[in-house]
Amino acid sequence: MVVHAAGRVPEINDLNLDAAGIKWDKRGVIVNEFLQSVSNLAVYAAGDAAASGGLPLAPVASYEGQIAAANLLKGNHQRPNYIGIPSVVFTIPPLAAVGLSERGARDQNLKFKVKMEITSTWYSSRRIAETYSGYKVLVEEGTDHILGAHILGSEASEVINLFALAIRSGMRATDLKHMLFAYPTSGSNMSRML
Ligand SMILES: Cc1cc2nc3c(=O)[nH]c(=O)nc-3n(C[C@H](O)[C@H](O)[C@H](O)COP(=O)(O)OP(=O)(O)OC[C@H]3O[C@@H](n4cnc5c(N)ncnc54)[C@H](O)[C@@H]3O)c2cc1C
């Protein structure tokens, strides 16, 4: 049996938001950069119920909740930063991504190098007889910043956090490449991915 459970929509259509002048669409309440409704300034929205630009994920919902609460209590002073938020499809093996896709980077006319490889011959995959694994990493020319990382493999869901850390903190790819990671962890593969 195949169950399709991809995607989600906020359950706000039965709240009669129009009666309070709250603009919304199928992505959620339309909010400004402070997570405040653009049409009813007394209302803030966070998480899956906000059309905020953040991914509909649990950590993003908590993060936005704290920002919305802070802005409600002390006036608009905090904006969410969505750079470098990882997401994982928990298949076997997992498929993980952070940052831009190659197409997304091209759409923004960015100049970048793409490194991509099937890694099923690497020790990390052979050790556990994993037939399917691979990665694609985009590094911006000039800044040496990692624009995006996409990994398929047994520990992709952990390794993607390291890429997220690098992207969110603005690390240079060269610095990450020269990190000395514990061996033989999957994280140590990062040096070869850059
Ligand atoms: C099948 C599935 C798998 C997922 N897997 C992941 C994952 O692996 N990792 C990840 O990061 N995210 C995952 N998510 C997404 C994650 O669950 C959501 O992004 C996150 O829960 C959003 O949090 P939230 O607080 O905005 O909304 P919710 O967690 O949906 O909380 C909203 C709450 O409001 C309540 N509510 C609704 N209407 C009313 C009302 N009128 N009055 C009072 N209460 C109301 C609801 O009952 C609910 O408790 C998954 C989602 C689904 C559906």
List keywords for this structure.
FAD/NAD(P)-binding domain, single chain, 5-stranded antiparallel β-sheet, Enolase-like, domain 1, 3-stranded mixed β-sheet, binds flavin-adenine dinucleotide, 8 strands, alpha+beta, 194 residues
CATH fold node name of the largest domain: Enolase-like, domain 1
List SSEs in N-to-C order: EEEHEEHEHEEHHH
**In this structure, how is the largest beta sheet organized?**
5 strands, antiparallel
Give the low-pLDDT segments. none
Supply the CATH superfamily name of the largest domain: FAD/NAD-linked reductase, C-terminal dimerisation domain
How many E-type strands?
8
User: What's the quaternary structure here?
Assistant: single chain
Question: Which compounds are bound in this model?
Answer: flavin-adenine dinucleotide
Mean pLDDT: 96
**Alpha-carbon distance between the two ends:** 39 Å
The coarse overall form would be elongated
The total tally of domains equals 2
For the record, what CATH class of the largest domain applies?
A: Alpha Beta
Strand content: 15-25%
What's this entry about, in short?
It is built from 6 helices and 8 strands, in the order E-E-E-H-E-E-H-E-H-E-E-H-H-H. The protein is α+β, with helices and mostly antiparallel strands. The relative contact order is 0.11.
Overview of this protein structure:
Helices cover 25% and strands 19% of the residues. The protein has six helices and eight strands. The chain has 194 residues and is an alpha+beta fold. The strands form two sheets. The chain has a five-stranded antiparallel β-sheet, covered by helices on one side. Strands 1-2-3 form a three-stranded mixed β-sheet, with no helix packed on it. The protein has two domains: 13-74, 3-Layer(bba) Sandwich (FAD/NAD(P)-binding domain); 87-193, FAD/NAD-linked reductase, C-terminal dimerisation domain (Enolase-like, domain 1, 2-Layer Sandwich). The radius of gyration is 20 Å and the shape is elongated. It starts with 23 loop residues before the first strand and ends with a helix. Strand 1 and strand 2 form a beta hairpin. Flavin-adenine dinucleotide is lined by residues 5, 8, 11, 47-49, 56-59, 61, 90.
